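Archive entry: two folds, one per protein. Generate the first.
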Amino acid sequence: MTTVLLVRHGLTDANTGGVLAGWTPGVHLAEKGREQAASLAARLADVPVAGIVSSPLERCRETAAAIAAGRDLKVSTDKRLGECHYGDWQGQELKKLVKDPLWKVVQAHPSAVQFPGGESMPAMQQRAVAAIRAHNAKFGEDATWIAVSHGDVIKSILADALGMHLDAFQRIQVDPCSMSVVRYTELRPFVVRMNDKGGPVTDLIPAKKKSRRKASSDAVVGGGAGSS
């Protein structure tokens, strides 16, 4: 199985200022965001990863660079992990956008949303999930890797992994510099963590192969129809 650590970028001034940044260039991590990224990097220092793939936007690349520091890894970028293309909404204040009739559709029926001059939310989900699947195949079934992306993008990936319709994805919360974890198997994805912002990560460190085989055997023995 391939394990993916989905990391949202750290806090930016656009986040605190209530602005929908989208693909606006020059949106960097705020001081708090840099602290968040450094803290997450320290938490993950002992977790071996096969690669780190980031959205091409600055705030994600800066978060990814903090996580990659001290590792013999080069961060790669994939535009499919980039923010939703919000079109005419990009750069506008949220307090203005909430008055737009489309806002209610975004909240209640996102699968029907096509942003004016921009991307549809289903298209965003499709290209993001395709990116995850492609990198899973690239890194291999025993790999753990990190994808650094954006709130709506990560929520859409989690909705897919949970078997949820996109219209329910607003029920998922993904805070700045949070980590969500999905394990992809031949049978189905398993969502291990969501919106994780602290605590130990020892369960993400692969066990030795002998121990893994024993754990798998124990799971089969203990996972019968009569188990609770």
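Generate the second and append.
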Amino acid sequence: MLTDEQIERYSRHIILKEVGGKGQKKLLDGKVLIIGAGGLGSPIALYLAAAGVGTIGIADADCVDLSNLQRQVIHFTPDVGKAKVLSAKEKMEAINPDVKVIPYETWVSAANILEMVKEYDFVIDGTDNFAAKFLINDACVMAGKPYSHGGILSFFGQTITVLSGESACYRCIFPKPPPKDAIPTCSQAGVIGVLPGVLGTIQATEAIKFLLGKGKVLSNRLLTYDALDMRFREVALNRNPKCPICGEAPTITELVDEVDAMTVCDLEAAKG
């Protein structure tokens, strides 16, 4: 049963026929893991907390830097130097004390990610490097966990939702990471500050729909966004039978850290 305070807090959800009191209870019982507390993770964390997702894990080993504040809206100027997961936890709990926030002040790696994802109903990739993105995909496919991929750079973004064993995964589209430094990072190429807000709220929407069991998620559909032209484009996809992780004869049978695509921080984390 929802309390009187919860009925008031979530009243705009409850009056939606697709949600109602039962749907709000599903959200309160839901568990979502956000990997990355930066540009994408910021709006994702804020909106999932506001929506009343009952348990939210958030993983990141970085600390807030002044250059983050142009786009990472969960962090404020006084947070500079603070661990991002702790800064995020404070804001999420301030928005909604109903929410249990579990911070993981660590980089995800082949050694720890399966232990993390097994506790959650849905996983969201809010990372900014290819090593992490391929690792998250592989771990979720192996663990049978649905997840939302998101990527941003400059004025462009993309997102897809992967339903393990049912839909195309990230490696169905991109079988392996590009060579290190082949594609610039946001710190090298820049990113317009509002871009992660657009993509992150889409990812948060996917998590909420999945928990509610309503609507259609972005499975087998890659959604791209061009902020300069203000244009969305949807690309239909199918599972790749030769995919190295979810195909008919997978060649990836255990998790590995994609060293060639790693940043210095990733390498240090992988070494333990």
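Annotation attached to the second fold: Confidence is low (pLDDT under 50) at residues 260-272. Strands lie at 31-35, 55-59, 100-104, 122-125, 147-153, 156-162, 221-226, 231-236.
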